[in-house]
Amino acid sequence: xxxxxxxxxxxxxxxxxxxxxxxxxxxxxxxxxxxxxxxxxxxxxxxxxxxxxxxxxxxxxxxxxxxxxxxxxxxxxxxxxxxxxxxxxxxxxxxxxxxxxxxxxxxxxxxxxxxxxxxxxxxxxxxxxxxxxxxxxxxxxxxxxxxxxxxxxxxxxxxxxxxxxxxxxxxxxxxxxxxxxxxxxxxxxxxxxxxxxxxxxxxxxxxxxxxxxxxxxxxxxxxxxxxxxxxxxxxxxxxxxxxxxxxxxxxxxxxxxxxxxxxxxxxxxxxxxxxxxxxxxxxxxxxxxxxxxxxxx
Length: 297
What we know:
By secondary structure, this protein is α/β, with parallel strands linked by helices. Helices cover 14% and strands 25% of the residues.
């Protein structure tokens, strides 16, 4: 149970009026985010809930600093709103009642465990997933693991060709008929399914190239020096235009914004007024959104 202190609550309520609240229609999903220690927040040592300002809502800024989310066994039927968790690296949503899952905006997602659900299809396009367990989904008919992510090792096997998936589990998916994969992944996919009744193809209906390019672009911002005392430099990749910058403290509170004159290929911002500590910089660009940590000294 959360410990709420009256003075802090007043501050948080005041701040929340300025935050953008996520629409999370599934009550069980929202309850987990607010009341369970299901999230790992960037910069924290232990898991907590995702409602860092304790206002009973999940704001865009709060979602942006979650890098791992574990929500199994909660009778969740929808994780709509997950698309705003743009820095999510790990998602575990096993043993729920999900019929669909849209993760195409989660460019940094590496691990997806979604076994024991009611999913009809899974598409990894737009993600960096290399660990996938979608076993025991009786309604699953189509999976696309095509996301241009090639890993050098398939753990626990002797496969020598470069498979994309470190873990790939399709067990107990009796309706599964088609798997679409990246070029070069065939041996890895064949090794992990162990049966031949599935149609293996490479011509997926959706081309993931553009999504993957965005994933690479939004993760190339380099902050220097870090830690910084006065000026923080942002090296911007070619072809990327910064549209706005927001700086949040570890509680998800917005402390500073930049919207003008931050459009050059190499930008500098003044952080001298910030108190000493850890902060999260949310960078919005023409190729997506990313959040990066920096330290003010």
